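Hello again,

I reread your note about wanting to compare the complex against the isolated chains. To keep things tidy I'm splitting this into two emails, and this first one only covers the full assembly. Below are the input lines as submitted, including protein chains and any nucleic acid or small-molecule components. They are followed by the predicted structure of everything together. The single-chain runs will come separately.
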Amino acid sequence: MFEQLPTFQKLLRQLQQLPYLASKNIYKVAFYFLNSDRKKVEQFCQVLLDVKDRIGRCHHCFNLTEGESLCSICRDEKRNKKIICVVENWYDLFAIEKAGGYDGVYHVLGGVLSPLEGIGENDLNLYSLFKRISNLDIEELILATNATPEGEATASFIYSKLEHLRDRFKITRLASGVPIGSSLEYMDKVTIYKAISGRQPF
Amino acid sequence: MFEQLPTFQKLLRQLQQLPYLASKNIYKVAFYFLNSDRKKVEQFCQVLLDVKDRIGRCHHCFNLTEGESLCSICRDEKRNKKIICVVENWYDLFAIEKAGGYDGVYHVLGGVLSPLEGIGENDLNLYSLFKRISNLDIEELILATNATPEGEATASFIYSKLEHLRDRFKITRLASGVPIGSSLEYMDKVTIYKAISGRQPF
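Full-complex prediction:
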């Protein structure tokens, strides 16, 4: 029955491209826009375009920034510029910031190495990281890519490129183990193995 | 850290209003728009506004229609205009159409009665239904609201208003029972009760 509603069909096709929107829910989102005032939809569109125009990437760390060439973290004089935490994406950075307890700076890779998806080393902000490290006097590099196969591979790749500098600064990885609030019973073997082998003094 | 990104914050707030988008995924959707070409975002906005401008409601049944005052189903001469199926929303209509096997017409209520949410009889397309029934010579009215408390209450309400016309046409309700592909073992008591009491000759 969509042949009779070409514009609506176009909207469904646009919504299909949004990540993390289940196909069953596309109709409800389309319905939401159909039932909203035109003014509200215009506002939504304006915000989308404003974001495209105003949000840029930090020249140092590729974090998001608005109206400045450096992001708020790189501009913050209280942050320790000698510790760099390498994350996959902006939302990983945000997750660490929300958790608190980290006062160093970041480097956002913009993804992970993934030969299957055709993402190679030149598609990530890797060489800017290496350049940044060679120019700065840093103390520690934290490889905080995710504990997925691609994340581990990307961390290994970065480590292999920087291994010869290990006497200049520490290279660390986030601790693996049992997440707070969960039971051993429900954990996979690899996590338990990591938790046992990485055990800490009480 | 969002204080430094007011435009981005605005986008997140807009996305929070979308139904069926988990709050954890809002960042990923925002990220999708940030990483898209400006042209693609413009296209998305244009489609949204086109939908607002071009998609209307059918004057008979309140189904979606584009460029015509009656929807494709009401205009279709092959459909049996003497059977009206009352559904809550447009996507319920679409679900029945996809399933096939129904050749009558529809009436879209635009929601269900829900005193808790302040949705009363005047907020739904109820009086247009009653008017439609009184003007037409119909054979059957199918109350196809969902099997939720609100859906049942809405069906009961419509039935109570039309009960006196029962000698003019049949009023039916969708069959309740065990969904195809599922096991009795996992069904709730009420469904099994309905399936037993509504049993059909083999």
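For quick reference: Chain B touches chain A through 52 residues (CB under 8 Å).

B.
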